[in-house]
Please model this.
Amino acid sequence: MRGAGLAVHFDPIGNIIGRLEGTDPNAPAVITGSHLDTVPEGGGYDGAVGVVAGLAAIKFLQSSGTLTHPLELIIFAAEESSRFGFMTIGSKAMTGMASRYAWSKAKDPAGVTLEKVLRDRGYNLREVDGASRVKDKIKAFVELHIEQGSFLENAEKKIGVVETIAAPTMLKITVEGVAKHAGSTPMDDRHDALVSAAMIVLAVQSIALEQSHCGTVATVGQLKVSPGAMNVIPGLVELWVDLRGVEQESIIETLQDIKDAVSTIADGQETPIAIDVMLSEKPVQMHEMVVQKIEDICISDKIPYQRMNSGAGHDAMNMARLTPTGMIFIPCRGGISHNFEEFTKLADIQTGIEVLTKTLYDLAK
Ligand code: GLV
Ligand code: MN
Ligand code: MN
Model:
């Protein structure tokens, strides 16, 4: 970013912000950006493409004349939930939604606290509110991202113009059983926490299947079994549920059905079960002004595009609270993402960069 002539600074949560001034020092900024962190065994495109595309777009705009509005490129910190169990930490802090109390308890899978990770990098969790930005200093936010599904590829479209981002709800479920000897405990004298957890996994799947006509999905992607030995009946299991949807009613119904199923399993198996709602968000609409601009560019450049929803979460969900926001999706091979096999053709990235560049130009000229 410095090489491209941007003034760069780190905000109090570790977001990296590069800024190029426009001709009007009082004009609100037009912002693009995404994230560089990823999930375990993730690919090289989720987030990273949006950062690189933003930099390419700003470099191009800078070399082709001065704009009225400042341009900013933001690399958001800790977008993925996989390390600390909280997603979009950087953009939440930026949009005044820092959960300092909850974050102060967050630990990564190795037991290192978010607080320590921040401290080691010279930040202080108590000061993250300082990352929040003022609404009237921002004109718009546009994020380019791979689709992470196969809709564009199957429809042979090059650009997805996002209308709604599905809301993530994240649950931590703790099942309490009784750890006992696996050899000497008869089958009718067990309170096996993993057996209850397995029932929960199946219940989550069948409940979400019933809601799938609304686009709702739910996944158990992580289990922690304690004490975790082959010859010990599991005494404690923690499992994490990721539930998403674009229809709020369906999300609420799914959540209620999961709670009911969990309480039936707890009673039937005599294994007490607690549910912690780690995150519960509402679907987020992109701003029609930005959506329309992206669509108009696709129409005038004859780029095959489609308005669509995003099943994945993005920093744009939070930025939408602060400023008119839009997202540009580009295809990804086989719809594979959160996987090392993630891939997008350079030509498709180029098309995305062209649309992003024109959108930023239109907003900042
Ligand atoms: C971000 O990758 C998400 O979990 O949607
Ligand atoms: Mn991701
Ligand atoms: Mn992402």
About this structure: The two ends are 21 Å apart (CA to CA). Residues 248-269 form the longest helix (22 residues). The pocket of glyoxylic acid (ligand 1) is lined by residues 80-81, 87, 312-313 (CB under 6 Å). The mean pLDDT is 96.
